[in-house]
Amino acid sequence: GTAFVVQWDKVYLQGKEDMGSFTFQATLHSSGRIIFGYQEVPVPVLQISASQHPVKAGLSDAFMVLNPSPDVPESRRRTIYEYHRVELDTSRICSRSAVEFTPLPTCLQHQSCEMCVTSELTFNCSWCHVLQRYL
């Protein structure tokens, strides 16, 4: 009830099955913490070729747009637009390692307009959901 875990077990790089398999997890905690745990990383991430697909590790804010494919009328092409990214240093990802992301405070944690406008956060939080206006 306080965490959601997704595990990728025995994942092989296409055409490079002889390199070994990867096993890793992403854990999303109700507190907002995110932990990536790497159980098995058979080769350094820096040695994974990015020629067919970009090699990324970290978090990003993004949205996806579905566009009709000109080649096949019934299908749609997915385009992902990233607008903020926190990248991990891939040279530090190895077997039996973990990375933890801790959320920064935001206005969303305030329970009233008073708490929001008197907040000492470093940004100017002034939206009041009760009055539906900026203060």
Automatic annotation (TrEMBL):
UniProt-listed PANTHER family: PLEXIN DOMAIN-CONTAINING PROTEIN 1, TUMOR ENDOTHELIAL MARKER 7 RELATED
Source organism per UniProt: Erpornis zantholeuca
Domain of life: Eukaryota
Membrane topology note: Single-pass type I membrane protein
CC terms in the record's Gene Ontology section: membrane
Signal peptide: none
Compartments reported by the entry: Membrane
Underlying gene: Plxdc1
Keywords, in A-Z order: Membrane, Signal, Transmembrane, Transmembrane helix
Family recorded in the similarity comment: Belongs to the plexin family.
Protein name in the entry: PLDX1 protein
